[in-house]
Give the backbone structure.
Amino acid sequence: MKKFLALILALSMVFALAACGESKAPEQPAETPADAAETPAEGGTIQVAAVSTAFTDAYPEMWAEIGAAFEAQTGIKVEFIEDKNLEDVIGPSMQGGEYPDVVYLPVGRPAGLTEQFVKDKLVADLSDVLEMTVPGETVKVSEKISDGFLDTSITNPYADGKTYLAPMFYDPCGLFYNAGLFEEKGWEVPTTWDQMWELGDKAKEEGISLFTYPTTGYFDAFLYGLMYTVGGPEFFEKATHYEEGIWDTPEAKTCFDIIGKLATYTNPVTPAQANDQDFKQNQQLILDNKALFMPNGSWIAGEMADSPKADGFKWGMTAIPAVKDGGDRYSFCWFQQCWIPSGAENADGAKQFIAFLYSDKAQEIFAKGGAVQPITGAADTISDAEKKEFLAIYDNNVKPAMGGFASYKAVAGLGSVREVFLDPVNGLVSGNVTVEEWVNGIKEASSQMLANLQ
């Protein structure tokens, strides 16, 4: 009974504006032996909650076809819950103790539901899934997943050598622009920040802003790529684990200065439209030649395929500019996640479903929506030449950046990473927040985050 009450308390924090104290997490369910998990279940039904994204916009039948293929392979039926605002749909039932068996909902969303489940240790250990044989194939899941995707603080939030969030659809993230406009103007795409500021001044003379962003949430990939570019993997690791004094280093100051200056070059209408309802209007600024660059992922071309575009419009993508000539340039490799609530009733079937998501058959279906799983050869299944070009960014002297901020315990008054690091960018652009105020907020919150690491 105590565990049940603790579970309800933890879940209620997801939907409350403030929390009181630290919730007690239930014990992790016993691990399923790897060999037992490889044995297909005898029929049954699992429930999968999947957030609707640009991929399902492009191919609405995607999940239904996945479910049919999984059932044909294992005999297990799948009931899907799909919605763009998935948190609002599954939240009430989870507060009542009823959970989907699988949740496809990435970190970084405004509601922070996945992060909250991680903080409260309400996600199941998926390590045994990696040792399962992919349904319908002869190889293990771990042998299918590309290098690097299982070695991040997102998939392994507790730094205990175990996987809790399974990596899903990956996209290189960078700065997207209208290549046709650059050709028309004879402009070179900047490779350093000095060149970026020079171009910003030139574009301003023609009534074009240098920068915009869909929502502040899109600054996660931008900030990660910038941290790698400024200080390399070592600085990124220290910063994302809130090392004491890290925000007073020259590398951190460079990051803050760049974002602060970039805010002054940002189209002024951006903050008012930087929300889940109007974000496409900010993306439209690129299509209308009202801004030059915006941070985004390679799904953007599909998401805005039917939107009006300036004459000669052609998508281009570039990495985060280097701090100096010859410096390293990075493009953050963003990936989504799926997971199993620790209170799910059909964990065995759920694990088989996740294992199936890495099959060649599943990738064939995902490709119809432009989604690419982090498995070897997946990019070759994409027919869209434009997206293939985006996926090839790492072949052009650009390094991949992966990872994210380390998870910390829920503490009353301590906001999420997005609230602390990213949301204040709106204030920087509008002039309501100074860089000093933003940095001071980060320092204060970071100390609490360090003290409450999972």
